[in-house]
Amino acid sequence: MSANMAKGKRSPVMKVAFHLWSAYRHVLVWFWVIFTVIYFGINEMIMRGIIPDESIRNSGREWDGATISPRIFLLVLGILLTIGSFNSFVSNGITRRSFGRGGLLFAGLLSISCTVLHLLGYPIEMLIIEISGAERSMQYPNLAIVAITNLLMYFGYFCGGWLIGTGFYRFHWFKGLLVCLLAVAFLIGMETMTATELTGSTAADQGIILFVLALASFLIVWINDGFLRKIAVKRKITL
Amino acid sequence: MTITIEVSRLGLLYDKSAKALDDVTFRLEGGKIYGLLGRNGSGKTSLLSILASFQQQTSGEVRIDGEAPYENERIVNQVCFIQENGYLSESFKVRDVIKLASDCWPNWDADYADRLLNQFELPAKKQIMALSRGMKSALGVTIGLASRAPITIFDEAYLGMDAPSRYYFYEELLKDYMEHPRTIILSTHLIEEVSDLFEEVLILDKGKLVLQEEADKLRSRGSAIIGPADAVDQFAEGLTILSEQKLGGTKSITVFGELGAEREKRATADGLTIGPVSLQDLFVHLTRKGIGSDERKHG
Amino acid sequence: MFDDRSPIYQQIADGIKNDIVSGVLGEEEQVMSTNQYAAFYRINPATAAKGFQLLTDEGILYKKRGIGMFVSPQAKGMLLEQRRARFFEEVVDKMAAEAKVIGIPVMDIVKRLEQLNGGEEQ
C-alpha cells in the first residue's frame, strides 16, 4: 500500500518527464563531454597553426558560436521523442496530454542543461587562453543575453524536431514532409533573428528578438500538441 | 472494485470508406473473463484499441465506468491493453520497460512481476530487440498480469509463446484473477486452449457483433447430429443448421439452438447420435461466409 | 479435459456425485472450494460455481457460511436411490435393446450375470 501511495504522488506529467530524463541524461552528458573536448582540441590546433585557418585565428573568441552542434543534437533528440516514446507512454495508461506536457518539461530540462553546460565552456576557454599566452581577448560576453538566447534556441530546436517526428508519426510521408518544412521554416526564422542580434543592437531590440524567439517556440509547441492529441497508437510508422 | 464497459453503436472507418467496426453494441459487467473471438480482420484489435484509448472511434460511444475513456486521465490508467509483440521500445532493456510500467500502473505488484519474469526466464539486462518473439510476448504478458488493471486486455498476446509458457500463463491468469477479481478480455483465435477460462463470449465478424453469450450456454446450444440422412433431415426441421456433411446414406449436421428434452428423446429413438460441438467448431461455423448474418439476433 | 456433451458445470457436479457415491467424499466432509476447483481444472470459477449451485439445489451439498461447502448427511442415500431408480431404464433396458438387435437370447444374458455374480462370491 505504501508503495502505491509513493507512486501515486508523482503526477503523470512528472512521470513522463522523469522517465525521459533518466533515459537521455547520459546521452546528454556524453555529448557535451565529447563535444567540448573535440571543439577545444580543434580550436587549439587552429590557434597553434597545426590546422591553417586564418579567419578563425583572427577572430579570437569562438565559444560564443559553439552552439550549432548542440542545436542539431537537440533537434535529433526531438525528432526521436514521439517516434521512440509515444507508444510506450500511451500504452502504459498515460494520456496524450500528459505525454505532451511531460515532453515539454523534458524539453525545458534539456534546454536548461545545455545552456548551463555551454556557459561552463567559457571558463574552460579562459583557462586555455591563459595557458597558451595572453594575446587573445579574454572578456566575457553578456552571459545573461547569451544564456537566454541559447535557452530559447535549444528549446526551439528540440521542439522543432519533436514536431517533425510527430508529423511523420501521425501522417503519411507527404503530409509529414509538409509538417517538417513548417518546422524547418520556424527554425530558419529563429536563426535569422539571432543573426541580427550578432550585428549589435539596443536592449530594446534584443528584447524584441527574445520575444519573437519565445513566440516561435510557443507556436511550434502549440501545433505539435494539437497533432499529438489525436494520434492513434501505431505499431509501425508508415513513411 | 470492478468497472463496467458500455459500448453503443460503435463504428470505425479506415481509409474513409472501409468499415473496421460497424454498429457494435454491448455491455460488459465488471469482474468477468471475456473471450473475444473473431477471424483475422474481423475488427477485434480495432475494438480493443478503442477501449484502451489507443485510437478514437468514428462514430458511437464507449463508456468505461460511465465515462468516455479517450484522453481521460482517470480511465486510461485502469485499462491495460497487451498485444502480441506490442508497443515496447526496442532500444529499452527489460528492466527499463518494467520500471516504466511499474511507475504507471496504480495497482502494480512488483513482487509478482519479478516472479513472472523469473518463471519466463526473462533477463532484466537484455534489450528488447535482442529478445525472441516468445520472450517479447512473455514480457507483455508479465506487464498485463502485474498491472492488476481493473480492465486487462490480452489481444493474441501469448501467441508467440511456446506451449508450456502459454499454459503457465493460463494458470497464472486464472489464479491471479481469482485472488484479484477484475475484468479480463482475451482475444484469440486459438479458442480450444482458453475457452474453458471464459465466462462470456463475444464473437465479431466483419466488424459486426455476431453474438454475446455465456460460454456454458453457448456450448450447450451447439450440437452435432449424425445418423441416417432422412432421420437427420426430419430432426433438423426448425433448427438453425450451421453445417452439413454427407457420407453415403449417413448425414452429419451441426445445429445451433436449444434442442430440448423432447427432441433429444426422439433422436435416440430414431437412431441418431447427438454429439457435442466445441466452442472452436461453433465459432468456425458461425463466422463462415454468410452464416453469421442469420444468427445476429441471438444473444 | 471436458469434452462430453453436457456443460462443464454439469460434469463437475457429476464428478462430485460420483465421489460421494463411491465414498471418496464422506458425509459432512468439506468439498474443495470453487476456486480450488477452477484452478485444478483450469476453468472459469463461475462455471465451477454453477456446478456447486446445482448440487446445493439438489440438497447434496450445503453451505456453511464463511467456511465452505459440505456434503449433506443424506447425500449418499439420495444419490444411491436416484441411481437405483435409473438403473433399469438406463442400463438394463439399453442392454436388452442391444441384445435384441444383435440376437443374443435373454437366457444367455442371465447366465452371464449369474456367472459374474458367482465369480464375485468366491
Descriptive key words:
A: 239 residues; mainly alpha; 79% helix; C: mainly alpha; Arc Repressor Mutant, subunit A; 2 domains; two-stranded antiparallel ribbon; 5 helices; elongated
Short description:
The complex is a heterotrimer of chains A (239), B (299) and C (122). Chain A has 239 residues and is mostly helical. Helix content of chain A is 79%, strand content 0%.
Describe the structure.
- The complex is a heterotrimer of chains A (239), B (299) and C (122).
- Chain A contains eight helices and no strands.
- Chain A has 239 residues and is mainly alpha-helical.
- The longest helix of chain A is centred in the N-terminal third of the chain and has 36 residues, at 12-47.
- The relative contact order of chain A is 0.12.
- Chain B folds into two domains: 5-206, Rossmann fold (3-Layer(aba) Sandwich); 219-295, Alpha-Beta Plaits (2-Layer Sandwich), CATH 3.30.70.
- Chain B contains eleven helices and 13 strands.
- Chain B has helices at residues 44-51, 73-76, 94-104, 110-119, 133-147, 163-179, 191-194, 215-221, 229-236, 260-269, 279-286, and strands at 5-14, 18-28, 33-38, 59-64, 79-83, 151-155, 183-188, 200-205, 208-214, 222-228, 240-247, 250-256, 273-276.
- The longest helix of chain B has 17 residues, at 163-179.
- In chain C, a hairpin with a 3-residue loop joins strand 1 (61-64) and strand 2.
- Classes of the chains: A mainly alpha (239), B alpha/beta (299), C mainly alpha (122).
- Chain A binds chain B through residues 3-4, 7-8, 10, 12, 15, 18-19, 23, 84-85, 87-98, 229-230, 232-233, 235, and chain B through 49, 52-56, 71-73, 76-81, 86-89, 91-92, 96-97, 99-108, 110, 149.
